[in-house]
Amino acid sequence: MENYPRIKYLEPLPGYRLFLIFDNGEIKVYSLAERLQTPAFRALQDEALFNTVHIANGGYGVIWNDEIDLSEYELWMKGVEVSNISELVAKVA
Fold it and tell me: What are residue 14's DSSP bridge partners?
């Protein structure tokens, strides 16, 4: 089984996106916009709930509550990598 980088820092962003820094130093932005239409993530359309996101123990994912979470694998594989400060500003603006 392949190991994926763990999450070291997390910040919810406008537009239902997550700003993530992994333990290997890479920075990614993950959008949940499309997933909000699925039953499992529909509750996150409530921005107050969306903004309660926190890192799971050990950095193995992110959690909103007992029913809604995402693995570090999902965030790592489908997050969009940010390679420089200009790109970061464009992605989080």
Answer: none
Number of residues in the chain: 93
Confidence band for 88, pLDDT divided at 50, 70 and 90 = low
pLDDT digits (tens, 9 = 90+) for 12-45: 999 999 999 999 989 999 999 999 999 999 999 9
* Whether 66 contacts 53, CB under 8 Å: no
50/88 Cα distance (integer angstroms): 21
Q: How far is CA 56 from CA 19, 29, 74, in A?
A: 15, 17, 14
What pLDDT is recorded for position 29? 94
User: How far apart, in whole angstroms, are the C-alpha atoms of residue 2 and residue 39?
Assistant: 29
Q: Which residue has the tokens 């029913």?
A: 67
Neighbours of 12 (CB within 10 A): 19
